Every structure is written in C-alpha cells, then in structure tokens.
Amino acid sequence: MTDSPSFLAPVTISDYRELARRRLPRQLFDYLDGGAYDELTLKENVKAFRNARLRQRVMVDVSKIDTSTELFGQKMAMPLILAPVGLAGMMRKRAEVQAAKAAEAHNLPFTLSTVGICPMEEIRAHTKAPFWFQLYLMKDRGFAKSVLDRAKEAGVPVLVFTVDLAVVGARYRDPRNGMMVADLPLHKKLWAGLQYPLHTRWLFDVALGGRPLSFGNLKGALDGGAGLAEFRQWIDSQFDPTVTWRSLEWVRQNWSGPIVLKGILDPEDARAAVSSIGADGIVVSNHGGRQLDGVEPTLHALPRIRDAVGGRTKILVDGGIRNGLDVVKAVASGADAGLIGRAWVFPVAARGQKGVEAVLTNFKKEMKVAMALTGVTRVSDIDRGCLLSK
Ligand SMILES: Cc1cc2nc3c(=O)[nH]c(=O)nc-3n(C[C@H](O)[C@H](O)[C@H](O)COP(=O)(O)O)c2cc1C
User: Fold this and answer.
1) Cα–Cα distance between 202 and 193 in angstroms, integer?
2) CA pair distance 38, 289, nearest whole angstrom
C-alpha cells in the first residue's frame, strides 16, 4: 500500500484516506480514522493482514475465476459486506444512501448502523437490493422494538446485533478535538466549530444540503437538530450495560430472520453465541480497534474461532481489511466473508458513490489476482493452504 497517494487517480484505501483527510473537518476525520486509547489494536488489525503471507502457486488453469458466494440465502459478488458505521452521513451528503447504491451496483450487502444519519426508509426508497441492519440494544426496549419493526417493514433480511459496546471505549482523539464534549467552554466550542466553515467542499456538500444531524433511525428518541454532544449523552443513557446472553432471547423473539452477533473475539464467546440463541452468524470483531485497546487483532483470533464453531454458524470477520488480497486472507483464515468499515467510508467521504464503486471494483480485481496466483478458482476452494504457515 502506497503512502504517497496520487490525487489524480486515487487507488488504494490510503489514497482515499488522504483525500478524506483533506476534505473533512478535523473532528469528523479523527472520529472516523481513530481508535481507542493508544490505538494499538487499530494498528495491529491492519498489520495482521499486511503480515499474513499468501502462498503462490502456478500452472493451474485460472482462466475462469468466480469470486461469488452466498450467505443467508443471498447471492453476492464477493465474500464482502459493507459494515455498519455510525454517523457516516456526516462525512458526505446522505453517505449511507450513496454507499448502499454502490453496494447494490456491485451486488454486495450494505449494513446500516442504528446510529446512521439516513433512516432505513430512505435507503429502501433509493435501492431495490436487500440491505442489512445493525442494532444496538437500547434500555428502552419499546423503542428498540419499534426500530426492529421498521427494519422488517423496510425488508431487511439480516439483523446484525452488536455485542461489544456494553460500555464505550474512550477514543482520545474526540475529546482532544472537542468532539462530543458536552461541557466545552464557549470559546473552545467556537474554536472547534471554526473548522467546519473552513472546509468549504464539505460545507456546501454536507452542511448545506445533507442534513448531517438527522439521526434517521432514532426518530422519536433523539430529535433532528440535536448536536453531537446531545447524541453522545443519549448513547450513554440508552446503551444497556446489563445485556447478557439471556437478553438475546428478547432479540430472537422480536426478529424472525437470521441474526449475526458482531463483536466476538474469543472462542468461548463464539460457543456461547451458538448455544445461547443459535446465532446464525458471528462477526469476529474488535469494533475496528475502537473499544478495548490491547486486544488481539481479528485475523489472529479467527482460526481459533473457526476451530471452535466452524460449521455451526457463519463466521464473518472485520478490522483491517483494506483490499481484495485481504479478503482472500480472511477467507483462507476461516471466514465465510469479511466486512469493511473505514474502507468504504474514506472513499464515500472523498468521492461519494463513485468512490465506493471504484474501491469495490478494485477489491474484485485484487481478489481475482490473489485467487489466480494462489491457484484457486472458487471461493469455496480458498482455505488455509492459500497461506504460508509461520
Ligand atoms: C467511524 C466508525 C463508526 C462505527 N460505528 C459502528 C456502529 O454504529 N455499529 C457497529 O456495530 N460498528 C460500528 N463500527 C465498527 C465497524 O462496523 C467495523 O467493525 C470496523 O470499522 C471494522 O474495522 P475497519 O474499519 O478496519 O474495517 C464503526 C467503525 C467506525 C470506524
């Protein structure tokens, strides 16, 4: 991955990250780019993929390579899903809609976050393909139920239930930038706010036409026009630290489709996910290094989790996937599919829908090359033999 992006033709996720950095107000870029505490796990996630060694094989007929796969009865062009990212619609005008359209054009699932800016009804109105929805369980179960009912109404097939946010890990870049701080003195608030009008491309695109503070899925709980500090207070008051495996019964009772538990990093928890509610899938995830800093990178945890529950539930993984070669490494390490977070939000922030489309096109090309040169032609043939063991 290059560290010196060409701005005429961004190619890698580092290129898009740099374009996003230039375009976004500092508070927003750091919210997106940063992780918890010293950001050790954030870096390790990426490094684990960089360090995994593919095993080159030659003289295999690779004239026909099929990157497609199927999950929960849904055909998809690659084993890749766009992960739920809160506040994405603050990075670009109606960013969740733009990304969902890009995902649809590439025949991949898009996952909308509970704390997305665009409401699920807006995604539905702009796309035909099924999109997934991610839920955080709120203390107000009545409200949570109404959100699930709306998701059903919008035709969402798969519920992603996030389990690694019982408490919110401290992301130090945010307070440093005055982001989501309720009691910031007025002069600091003004200073922090000054960066917004100075980023004119962002200002005209998002602030003047994008309704960036509308929190569409929280309609009725958090009114439009609430600031980020009020948003953070709502999160702190509503996120439920009492949630246990037993609480999942409530989710099962209120959702009849497949449930994917996101935020599993330990084989014991993977077993519990299967035995408690028979999770249809799990996402091996540390929330992109935004929760407990110092935990293991996801690619390292994956093979042990595969050994523990493989065959009993679908295993997805996220954290550090930055190109199509990484997707092959994820599948070779035991995943049925990978999810990308920052790798879709940097391009949507930088270039909107066409940025995400360009990235997804590249992912597919990269996957094909990685498959061809590891000597496999179908996703089901990608296994640990595609990697050099250390
Ligand atoms: C800015 C940001 C916001 C996120 N918001 C959510 C969210 O609302 N719900 C959720 O389950 N995960 C959320 N995540 C975690 C992602 O779904 C995913 O696990 C993570 O981004 C994967 O790491 P990657 O960015 O290295 O691909 C967020 C991640 C980022 C970077």
Assistant:
1) 13
2) 10
| Residues in contact with 35: Cβ distance below 8 Å, sequence separation at least 6, in sequence order | 41, 42, 171, 288, 289, 290, 293
pLDDT tens per residue across span 104-151: 999 999 999 999 999 999 999 999 999 999 999 889 999 999 999 999
Would you say the CB of residue 116 lies under 6 angstroms from ligand 1?
A: no
Cα–Cα distance list, 384 to 311, 320, 330, 335 (Å) = 16, 19, 10, 11
Annotated catalytic, 287?
Answer: yes
Domain 13-172+235-386 = CATH 3.20.20.70: yes
The alpha carbon of 349 and the centre of ligand 1 are apart by a number of angstroms equal to: 15
Q: Report the alpha-carbon distance of residue 118 to residue 28 in Å, rounded.
A: 17
134 lines ligand 1 (CB under 6 A): yes
Closest ligand 1 atom number to CA of residue 84: 17
Strands 74-76 and 69-71, sheet pairing: antiparallel
For residue 303, CA distances in Å to 87, 169, 270 come to: 32, 26, 12
Q: Cα(306)–Cα(336) distance, rounded to whole angstroms?
A: 10
Q: Which of 159, 165, 287, 291 to mutate to test the pocket of ligand 1 (most atoms within 8 A of CB)?
A: 287
For 49-68, give the secondary structure using H, E and C: HHHCCECCCCCCCCCCCECC
| Closest of 33, 27, 36 to residue 170, by C-alpha | 36
CA angle (383 as vertex; 377, 386 as ends), nearest 5: 75
* Domain map (residue ranges) of the chain: 13-172+235-386
Instruction: Give the helix/strand (H/E) hosting 32.
Output: helix 26-33
C-alpha span between 132 and 325 (Å, rounded): 24
Distance CA 373, CA 329 (A): 13
Contact 90 CB / ligand 1 (< 6 Å): no
Say if ligand 1 is within 6 A of residue 288 CB. Answer: yes
What's the 85 CA to ligand 1 centre distance in angstroms? 5
pTM value is 0.97
**Residue with CA nearest ligand 1 atom 6:** 85
pLDDT tens track for 157-214: 999 999 999 889 999 999 999 988 888 899 998 988 899 999 999 999 999 988 888 8
Q: 161 CA distance to ligand 1 centroid (A)?
A: 13
